[in-house]
Amino acid sequence: MDLCLMIEGQEGVTWPHWVALARACEEHAIPALFRSDHYVNLDGRDPERGSLDAWGTINALAATTSTLRLGTLVSPATFRHPSLLAKLVVTADQISGGRIELGLGAGWHEHEHEAYGFPFPPTRVRMDILEEQLQVVLGNWTDGPFSFGGEHYKLRELDAQPKPVQRPRPPLIMGGSAGPRSAALAARYADEYNTPFPTVEDVRQRSAQIAEACERAGREPLPFSVMTGVVVGVDTADLRDRARRLSRVRGDDADAFMADPPAGWIVGTVQEAARQLIALRDAGVSRVMCQHLLHDDLDAVALLGDELAPLVT
């Protein structure tokens, strides 16, 4: 099981932060760095915490890294025309020499859509848009002319050049709680399914639902991954110090957090965290995108790569 880094870019992560995080990942053998694709702080407590554009950031990091894989988790279908999104991904893939992954979802945070003027239709319509986006993005990446006539997008005789470095395409990740339509779309189009903040029992249930959807679609089960909060310390004192810093960011109480961590989070010393991760691995998880909310804490990145990852691979 691989441990990757997941950064919430809308939490005031600056360009120097991104560069330092990417360098730390490469230095400490973390294979991939994922970032959210949001434009505003989600809890509304600090509107001054800004966000650089996800694909602008990824394209810049593609030019300043050499081994690190980069991707979104996930890009809302409501933010960009799918041909634009496909072109941004290809650009990053070309710049990086084939180290890019695309996470794509329907979009969910209504306030940022209102603030930026993005349409926010009902859930059913957003899922329809997502399905068409999946088809158009993949069509952009295929060889030869591609035409598409959907309700939301229409393309005629497109042969988008250049094509991705990765063949047949960059990996495409879909995610959620494995509901019927999400599972069916993933089984048809995706290369991996990711679920957020699950318990071990959630993993078993959701991965089974994805496997069933894949069987109905006539393909092998998708790799199943997890995105969840990870707070690790060298020892109890180090863990408690990190929890105190995190609580200032989250606006909660560190002692309460330590006594009763949020469901699905990985919280503990290195050995304790390893046991929690191994339980996920044994339930079928192929990799964990470790949400790291203390984005200026590079010691935690080193701990993740140097100490924790070798215990769970």
Mean pLDDT: 96
Task: Write down the Rg.
Answer: 19 Å
Segments where pLDDT lies below 50 for 5+ residues?
Answer: none
Q: What number of domains? A: 1
Which structural class do the helices and strands define?
alpha/beta
Please name the CATH topology. TIM Barrel
Q: How far is the N terminus from the C terminus?
A: 5 Å
Q: The biggest beta sheet, please?
A: 8 strands, parallel, barrel
Query: Which series of helices and strands comes N to C?
Result: EHEHEEHEHHEEEHEHEHHEHEH
Number of helices: 11
Structural description of this entry:
The chain is globular, with a radius of gyration of 19 Å. The chain is of the alpha/beta class and 313 residues long. The strands form two sheets. The chain has an eight-stranded parallel beta barrel with strand order 1-2-3-5-8-9-10-12, surrounded by eight helices. It has a two-stranded antiparallel ribbon with strand order 6-7. The mean pLDDT is 96. The termini are close together. Helices cover 45% and strands 19% of the residues. The protein has eleven helices and twelve strands. α7 links the parallel β9 and β10. It has one domain: Luciferase-like domain (TIM Barrel, Alpha-Beta Barrel).
